[in-house]
Write a structure and sequence with these properties.
alpha/beta; Rossmann fold; 2 domains; seven-stranded mixed sheet; six-stranded mixed sheet; exonuclease; exonuclease activity
Length: about 325
C-alpha cells in the first residue's frame, strides 16, 4: 500500500508534484510554478510560467516586471496531469492563497504562510479538510501568543496623543504589514494623513488599485518637519535607524512584528514602542487550525518545526518536518 502523499515530493528548493509537473513556491526558477503569495521568499522571479491569484501576479509584476502569469481566482479549479488544483484564502497578505491538490483519492493542502486574525487588507483564512496539511511554523512555540491587534494599535495612538511635538516612526515590512497597519489605523478612526517612506509607495499604490482603502498617504520626502509633528510615519524596518530618519521630528521608534514578543529583538533594533502585530498564526492558532482541519498527517516547514511536530505526535497525529530552504521571516 502506497504511503499517504506519495505523489508529491519535498525537495530543499520546494514541493514538486510530478503528475502535474509543477513546483509550489520553488526557491529557484522552474518551468512551471504555483505561487502561494507575493513575499520574496515564496515568489521568485525567472519562472517560465506561474499560476497564482490575480493579486499575487500583480505584486510579482510590480516587483519583478511582467510575468508569464496565469491567474487563478479563489474557488476556481484547474487540472494538470490528473491533479485538480484550487486556490483558497490564506489570510496572510493581499492575494495570499492555500493551494489544494486533489489526486489519487487524496487531498493535500499547502498552506503557504497564513494567519487566522481578521485583516481589512486581505481575504480571511479558509479552513479546508484534507488528508495532509502542510503548515508553516514561523511562531511555532508556545511562548508566542499574539495580542489583539486593536490593542496594539491603541498603544500606537496613545503614544502619538501623548507626544504631540514628536512623530511615531513605525517599521513595517513593505508588503502586507505596512498596508495592514495603515488600514487598522483607519478602522479605529485615525483619518489624518499618514507619511510613508518612498520604498512603501509602490506597494501601497498597488493595494489601493486593488480596492484597499488606505486613506490619505504622503511621502516623507514631500513634507516638512513641522507637518510631521504629531503624525504617524511608516518605513521599512531597515530605515528605522538610518540617516533618513533624521529628517523626522524627534521620532518615537516603533516596530510592528510578531517578533516584538521577544524583548531582546526590540532592544537590538533600538525599538522604543514594540507593536506585536503579526501576519502569521501564533502557537494557539497553529494548533487550533490543526484540530479544526483534522488531517491524517501534518507536514511542517519554515519555522519552529520540532515543537509543532511534537505537539502533533502527543495527539496521535502523524507529523514530520520538511527540509525546505530559502524561507525567512522578512515578512514579519
Amino acid at each position: 500500500m502506497a504511503r499517504l502523499g506519495s505523489w508529491i515530493e519535498a525537495h530543499p528548493e520546494g514541493i514538486y508534484v510530478p503528475a502535474a509537473d509543477v513546483w509550489i513556491d520553488p526557491s529557484r526558477p522552474k518551468p512551471r510554478a504555483l505561487v502561494t503569495h507575493g513575499h520574496a521568499d515564496h515568489a521568485r522571479s525567472g519562472h517560465e510560467a506561474v499560476w497564482a491569484t490575480p493579486e499575487t501576479l500583480a505584486i510579482m509584476a510590480a516587483r519583478y516586471g511582467p510575468q508569464a502569469g496565469n491567474p487563478v481566482r479563489y474557488g476556481e479549479t484547474l487540472t494538470m496531469g490528473g491533479v485538480d488544483i484550487g486556490f483558497v484564502p490564506a489570510g496572510h497578505v493581499l492575494g495570499s492563497a492555500q493551494i489544494i491538490l486533489d489526486h489519487a483519492g487524496e487531498r493535500i493542502v499547502v498552506s503557504g504562510d497564513y494567519k487566522r486574525r481578521e485583516d481589512p487588507t486581505c481575504a480571511r483564512f479558509q479552513p479546508v479538510a484534507c488528508d495532509i496539511f502542510i503548515t508553516e511554523a514561523t511562531f511555532g512555540l508556545p511562548v508566542f501568543r499574539h495580542p489583539e491587534t486593536h490593542d496594539e494599535i491603541d498603544k500606537l495612538l496613545a503614544a502619538l496623543a501623548a507626544n504631540p511635538d514628536r512623530c511615531v516612526l513605525v517599521g513595517a515590512y513593505a508588503l502586507g504589514k505596512a498596508q495592514r497597519v495603515i488600514a487598522e489605523l483607519r478602522r479605529l478612526g485615525h483619518e489624518a494623513p499618514i507619511f510613508i517612506h518612498g520604498a512603501l509607495e509602490r506597494l501601497c499604490a498597488l493595494y489601493q488599485e486593488q480596492g484597499v482603502d488606505l486613506g490619505t498617504l504622503r511621502l516623507v520626502s514631500d513634507a516638512s518637519k513641522d507637518e510631521m509633528q504629531g503624525a504617524i510615519v511608516l518605513a521599512p524596518p531597515s530605515a528605522l535607524n538610518d540617516r533618513w530618519s533624521r529628517r523626522l521630528p524627534d521620532p518615537i521608534t516603533a516596530m510592528a512584528s510578531g517578533w516584538m514578543r521577544v524583548r531582546q529583538r526590540a532592544v537590538q533594533r533600538n525599538v522604543e514602542l514594540p507593536l506585536i502585530i503579526s501576519d502569521h498564526a501564533d502557537w494557539h492558532e497553529l494548533t487550533e487550525t490543526l484540530l479544526e482541519i483534522a488531517p491524517k498527517e501534518v507536514w511542517v516547514t519554515h519555522g519552529r518545526e520540532d515543537a509543532l511536530v511534537h505537539w502533533c505526535m502527543t495527539r496521535q497525529i502523524r507529523a514530520c518536518a520538511l527540509d525546505l530552504v530559502g524561507y525567512d521571516d522578512e515578512d514579519d
